[in-house]
Amino acid sequence: MDAVCSGAAAFDLGEETEFGEKLTDKLTAMYETAMGLYGESGKNLLADGGYTPAHYPYSAKDVRDTYTAIFAERGCEAPAVVRIYRSDANAEHFLAFGTALDGTEITAETLNGAMDGLIFENGAAFNTVTADKDGHIRADLNDTFAAQVRSLGTSGEYFLVGGIVNTLLDAFDGTDVTLTVNGAPLESGHNIYDYALTRYEE
To answer: Residue 131: enclosing H or E segment and its boundaries?
Structure first.
């Protein structure tokens, strides 16, 4: 916690930036950037602000804890910022994007707004997303998402489903994710997802 607090104190931005930008807008932009980066580049970004990440590569929770403290020291509530994972153009690696949601809560609706066009296509969306105290996440999706999954080959499916799973694990600091479509297990031409999913690796 001391590392988080010292990091918060290091971000001495004054009431507004030199360009007249609102402080909260500047902090939110920094928060999005930090959430989208991990590994050496992300570590250096926070190190420049005086904070040494507790884990390397640092987790979304590390970033969230840091910026929650930074906003709190300035009397502001931190926005909800998530790390969204998606495939690169060749379906070989995950790319990560730090994205501020519309509001301070992580819900199916706010996630849909952030993921539309980035992961979800043609109206694919969450119906509901819930997480219990033990970190078990349940995400129910619509038929359009199932069709999107079925339209892909094995590699594309891996990165689409994995992107959803990794995004939710980071957003809720969870342990596993169960995916359903209108209450039934997600099915594709390659798999039936009737089991809890853990983090996808490249």
So the answer is: strand 126-131
DSSP count for the chain of H helices, then E strands:
7, 7
Mind listing the pLDDT tens digit for each residue in 167-198?
A: 999 999 999 999 999 999 999 989 999 999 99
The string of DSSP letters for 148-173 reads HHHTS-HHHHHHHHHHHHHHHHHHHT
Rg (CA), the chain: 18
- The whole-angstrom separation of Cα 26 and Cα 105 is 20
Contacting residues for 33 by C-beta, under 8 A, at least 6 apart: 45, 98
Residues 151-169: tens digit of each pLDDT: 999 999 999 999 999 999 9
86, 98 in Cβ contact below 8 A? no
